[in-house]
Amino acid sequence: MSFTAKDTQLYRQDERSGHRKLDVVQREELVKNYLPQTPLRLRGNSRIRKQDSSRFGIRKFLKAQLYALLYLLTHAIFSLYIRIRIAYHAVSSRFVTILKHHYNSPEYIARDVATLRRLPKHLSVILTLENGGRGDALGKLVNEVAEVTAWCAAAGIPTISVYEKTGILKRYMPQTHGNVANRLTAWFGKDQAPQLSLFARGAPTIESRPGLSLVLISEEDGREAMVDLTRVLTEMVQKNKISASDITMDVIDNELSEAVMKEPDLLISFEPYVDLQGYPPWAIRLTEIFCAPDNQGVGYQVFLRALRKYAGATFKLGK
Amino acid sequence: MSDLYLSHIRKWFLKSPPAEWLMRGAREMLIGTLQQGPIPKHVAFEMDGNRRFAKNHQIEAIEGHHLGFEALARVLEICYKCGVKVVTVYAFSIENFSRPPGEVNGLMAMAKVKLEQLVQHGELLDRYGACIRVLGERSLIPADVLPFVDRAVEMTRHNKDAVLNICFPYTSRAEMTSAIQATIAEFTSAPQPSKPPFSQSRIAQKIRSKYSTRLDSLEPIRETDVGTGSDVDDSMSSTTALDPESPRLQSTTAKPRKLPNPENITADTINSHTYTAECPPLDIFIRTSNVTRLSDFMLWQCHESTHIFFLKCFWPEFDLWHFVPVLLEWQWRQKKLLEKESSQK
């Protein structure tokens, strides 16, 4: 309520005294000026309504015209502002990219993250398949996956999950694995390249030795996975294998984190604004979400800024 | 020293009646302007930062919550004036019970007093046409607050213009769990659409009886061997046609209950058991105080096409001036999305 200062003071005095200062009527008196008019359907007298419309018809019309004009004006200004903002962000990110490049070398990245107080153990990124998968969109996507994985390996992040809405990568698991492994070899050398395991729900894991884990997730790991789990649980209850009261949050959490993935610590969206695109809802409970405003494309700078932000964030559950 | 004077003068000026009158006019005009564009149907607020605001201003935590309540009242007024249909606010998390008992008690006392006042001014609420719903774990609401919650919900049930969802002891995972549990309960209890309105056996019965009556009526006319032969044939064919039908019918009646197929569960089934089943999809999610996490709020609702905004200001500071840029940007994005869609077609 945009109370006047006097009324705010009165309200707060009443509040402080434990609401003993004002009685019901006085309190109603206090807010009366700020209430909207009684809606038409509650007004009993139709004569008054008629009078209202005839007297204020022109005024209403002018007001509507004014608002429409102001709307156009506001949006024109806002559109200009947002274009300038996008341009500013694009230019500044270009500058920073030139100033701070990783030169495909793990040492540079390790140096960049050395000062950070903490790193996420599980990092998640949202990538998009461009142009609906036409042209070389798939190649670009796999390239981005390899790139991000290499950054994480260099920074020392052991688990990476890649969310891509359509789930096209899951159809090319061996190829994706080969591509990412090649990138790691190119960055770290044949002997030092970390072992890569590739996971996806409902698909055989590729190479599950300890090392780097890469989890592929898609839209069907979100609501669809929860629906599948519900079906399984329903069937078990129907066959009296378990009782309905056994199904607790822990059971669901355990099952979803085993079958899909565990809760990530940090989620990076490379979109211009935060857009979860159907990301698994169960998993993002306490995940730190990072999105560089107006960002275009997958860039190392965004990754680094996200890690810095994460290092500075404080976690508190409900406190 | 001069800074202090300046701020005093500014405060004095802003509090003066003409300045207040102007500000009020400006607010009205801004809201009227925004209303010309698309308006979100459902907005969720995670009211974060009351305590940090209190700490920064060296006041008690509970004072911060009181100021937060004032901010909520402001925001609700703005939303309903703009034409937002549903506002969902995160009032109290299940995890919040782990806060210092003094603060929890203070919050509960505040909830009680506010709800009590709400009930006293019932007819004022009708002017907004707003109904209140309390979402969350009912069993965790303290016994002395519960009657007020029920009264407030009951008193505003008839209002249809707008909805205020108060999430009070709520976490999204608890909500999703209860939705899954309810879905399982639905699919393991006796089938609700007990029988299809048309019974196959009844149809067969009817046809057979018709046949037999017709044959009965025909029988006296043609008493030839062929006629009796066809009669036998007919009855045989009709019994063979019914044979696979009748045992199945018997088995369903013999079994205590026929359970619905779990394969029929869809995301919509689970959705219909969430607290926000009747609400339109969430358009805007706003979290204040520069924390970029969802913190167990509206996870199921906001992960698809919701626009999520993380704002830097603390909740008690939140006002029209913070909400307008959000709304403008949302309107702008909406316009862009529309343009994109039409260009793709």
Can you give a write-up of this model?
- The complex is a heterodimer of chains A (319) and B (345).
- With 319 residues, chain A is an alpha/beta fold.
- Chain A has three domains: 31 residues, no CATH class; 55 residues; 173 residues, Decaprenyl diphosphate synthase-like (Undecaprenyl pyrophosphate synthetase).
- Chain A contains nine helices and seven strands.
- Chain A has a seven-stranded mixed beta sheet with strand order 4-3-5-2-1-6-7, covered by helices on one side.
- In chain A, strand 1, helix 5 and strand 2 form a beta-alpha-beta unit.
- About 3% of the residues of chain A have low confidence.
- Chain B is α/β, with parallel strands linked by helices and 345 residues long.
- Chain B contains 14 helices and six strands.
- A six-stranded parallel beta sheet of chain B has the order 3-4-2-1-5-6.
- In chain B, helix 4 runs parallel beside helix 5, helix 5 packs parallel to helix 7 and helix 9 runs antiparallel to helix 10.
- The longest helix of chain B has 25 residues.
- Chains A and B meet through helix 1, helix 2, helix 3, helix 7 and helix 8 of A and helix 2, helix 4, helix 5, helix 6 and helix 8 of B.
Helix and strand layout, with pairings?
The complex is a heterodimer of chains A (319) and B (345).
Chain A: H1 5-16, H2 24-32, H3 46-99, H4 106-114, E1 122-127, H5 137-155, E2 159-164, H6 173-188, E3 196-200, E4 203-206, E5 212-217, H7 223-238, H8 249-259, E6 266-269, E7 288-291, H9 300-312
Helix pairs in contact in A: 4-5, 5-6
Chain B: H1 2-15, H2 17-34, E1 42-46, H3 50-56, H4 61-82, E2 86-90, H5 101-120, H6 122-128, E3 130-135, H7 146-155, E4 162-167, H8 172-188, H9 200-218, H10 225-242, H11 245-254, H12 267-271, E5 284-287, H13 299-302, E6 307-310, H14 320-344
Parallel strand pairs in B: 1-2, 1-5, 2-4, 3-4, 5-6
Helix pairs in contact in B: 3-4, 4-5, 5-7, 9-10
